[in-house]
Amino acid sequence: MYDPERYENNKAAAGNDAAEFVPRLIKQMFWKREEKILDYGCGAGSVCTEYLVPMAERYKSTIDAVDTSDDMLEFAKANNSHALVQFMKDDIMKEDFIKGRTEVYDRIFSIYVLHFMRDYK
After folding, report:
1. Domain segments of the chain as ranges
2. How far is residue 27 from each of residues 47, 55, 111, measured CA to CA in Å?
3. What is the pLDDT of residue 64?
4. Is 107 helix (H, G, I), strand (E, B) or coil?
5. Do 42 and 48 meet the contact criterion of CB atoms below 8 Å apart?
6. Per-residue pLDDT tens digits for 83-106
């Protein structure tokens, strides 16, 4: 699904699941100050903005919100921008995602992403 407006308007199940489980998951975690967070498969950015940004604000953390879709990222930047979030295009499934990176992430979130992956190996 690479049509961000259609995705946002038709994510009833995903939206309900995120609303129920992401806050519960976040509440169970021990958070520290100035963490580096990765939201892989951020899509249109609404889950990141709604659930991860408040924690990033509270703990002075930053978020790298990554997706493979230019359209999703464009929508995310236009509708869900925040000073603590850097939206960027990348693919965690590619070997060069790790090579040459200096970032070390304290937390990695990937919500409703696995079903979009073509190669589960």
Report:
1. 4-116
2. 15, 10, 16
3. 95
4. strand
5. yes
6. 999 999 988 777 777 666 667 899
